[in-house]
Specification:
homodimer, 333 residues, alpha/beta, Rossmann fold, Dihydrodipicolinate Reductase, domain 2, 2 domains, seven-stranded mixed beta sheet, six-stranded mixed beta sheet, 15 strands, 25% strand
């Protein structure tokens, strides 16, 4: 079995560290692991396979001999290094949003459109966390009827804002407990005991960039250029795992029992749907594992062609790092 | 000006205490205040108008000479005392759900259907907190086009579960901070840093009682027996104020600017809708005041006859105590 030289770009961030863990957990055939970061990361270490790996500053010279680069950096860094990565013959599996809408860059959720990986020209994009989690739960239902549109309200964890997010929530809660002030830095308002209905920047028609991702990325992943998705994204004082309350509009009437049967067998999903037994997805239950938990499945009372569901997924894992490693697995298959 | 003898039934609970505060704040003409509780409350005191009022156990004899009873007790207590209250000639403004669907009991949000107060036969019901908050924001939009249906996802504060809710969240957070366990008692799962997508008991078609209230109470308050509402109710680790992400389906296309203008002038509402200035409703902003904050107003991308909005309201005040005192004000007008 061949071993691969894998570089993680942005190895010290929340997603980068998770990528290192998941490469190990899934026994990805790593021959050599290269941890890359910004200048600031110089001199720091990350752990991989029981070893402390020095983090090197990413430069033009970092990618010689690399087979696969897992990108966990921001858009600017991704844009800067993408040409160098591809010139070196490596494949760039990028978690930034920089290339997601490029026509020659596949955008892949391995449970949904694995075949798209084959069309890559050196770059494959990983979807936004909320997109990956929502669509893993929603896409299997296309077996019952084509999906026309999706309405969603999200409940997004603070770790979606990077490592500083959980730190701010924790320290703010501690400070408030002592009666001390803790002015918001990462988030625009206090997040402890609060909700912030604004994630991303204003993009169009009153929607934020985060809200529009579910529509634009959904269209590409599902190969449905006409799909409409209307979304409200809300930050909640939860450490980890994003949750989504969705109403899915199908072409035809969809039977709840049939939908339940499909989701019980859907790859990447775990059906948890028993109110009487207090079984339903929660962020805590879905944290630190790879499945998207789905429940509260029921017919929408406003339209018999609609189904409602509630799903939770670990946005650092299935919403980012796991999905990227799954793409890398498809690449070497 | 006449003064009224007012009894608060359930005076030691979260809503009861708030009723006492609001009677004072709004200068309700209280001649005598009677604080009633269960046998357990015997010997305790509540404060009203600078005085400590002894809480009496509610009995058949408690209601002689009372003009208005504000009910902040559970359904069983409401059902037990309602006949005695009305036999004594008092009007019962009840916050329990016991009578909300009785044909001869008006269900009133004073900003929406104040005229219904006149039809009472001794009992007037206060709506569920989420209903009162959502409809205060949504009902004014009927000026633009009739409403056909509403889709909603809620983000409900722990104080909606009574005084024990915030205590559990606070103590659970403290215990977790010390690395100690704190098994859930009030809520079915850990609520600290978590979400619980189940409020109320299973009622029908996979929906909980809390979720169905918005439809059934909405039909009665809006006088629209055909209205459909599909709702997912979620408990969030927020102390106070419920939030709702809603999509409202109208008969016709509705212009966002026109909707904004209406909500800016709507009674009981405050429009906060400027993403660039980080102005939008949050639970913290809406806590401990009476207005329903409305924002994130925009056309639904899945249907041009739909509008999306986000609203927050203090569920102990506008969602319960304030609405009840407003009804009492209509009664004495």
């Amino acid at each position: 079995m061949k071993n691969y030289t894998v570089a993680v770009l942005g190895a010290t961030g929340a997603v980068g560290r998770e990528m290192l863990r998941i490469l190990q957990e899934r026994n990805f055939p790593v021959g050599k692991l290269i941890a890359l970061g910004s200048e600031r990361s110089n001199g720091s270490f990350v752990s991989f396979a029981g070893e402390q790996i020095p983090v090197q500053e990413a430069t033009k010279e970092s990618f010689a001999g690399v087979d696969i680069v897992l990108g966990a950096a921001d858009n600017q860094t991704a844009l800067e290094f993408a040409p160098i990565i591809t010139q070196n013959g490596a494949v760039f599996v990028d978690n930034s949003s920089a290339f997601r809408q490029y026509p020659n860059v596949p955008l892949v959720v391995p449970e949904i459109n694995p075949e798209d990986v084959r069309k890559h020209e050196g770059i494959i994009s990983n979807p936004n966390c909320t997109t990956a989690i929502s669509l893993t739960a929603i896409a299997p239902l296309r077996a019952l009827s084509p999906i026309r549109s999706i309405w969603a309200a999200t409940y997004q964890a603070v770790s979606g804002a990077g490592i500083a997010g959980p730190v701010e929530l924790q320290q703010q809660i501690t400070a408030l407990g002592r009666g001390e002030p803790y002015p918001p830095q990462v988030f625009p308002h206090q997040i402890a005991y609060n909700l912030i209905p604004r994630i991303g920047e204003h993009q169009e028609l009153g929607y934020t960039s985060e809200e529009m991702k579910l529509q634009y990325e959904g269209r590409k992943i599902l190969h449905q250029p006409e799909l409409t998705v209307s979304c409200t994204c809300v930050r909640v004082p939860v450490m980890r795992s994003h949750s989504v309350s969705a109403s899915i509009c199908f072409e035809d009437h969809v039977d709840v029992a049939a939908a339940r049967e499909i989701l019980a067998a859907a790859p990447g999903c775990r059906l948890l749907d028993d109110l009487a037994a207090e079984e339903y997805p929660t962020p805590l239950l879905s944290s630190d594992q790879d499945l998207v938990l789905v429940g509260r499945l029921r017919q929408d009372l406003t339209d018999s062609n609609r189904l409602n569901l509630w799903c939770c997924g670990d946005q650092l894992r299935k919403g980012a790092a796991t999905n990227a490693v799954q793409i890398a697995e498809l690449l070497i298959k």
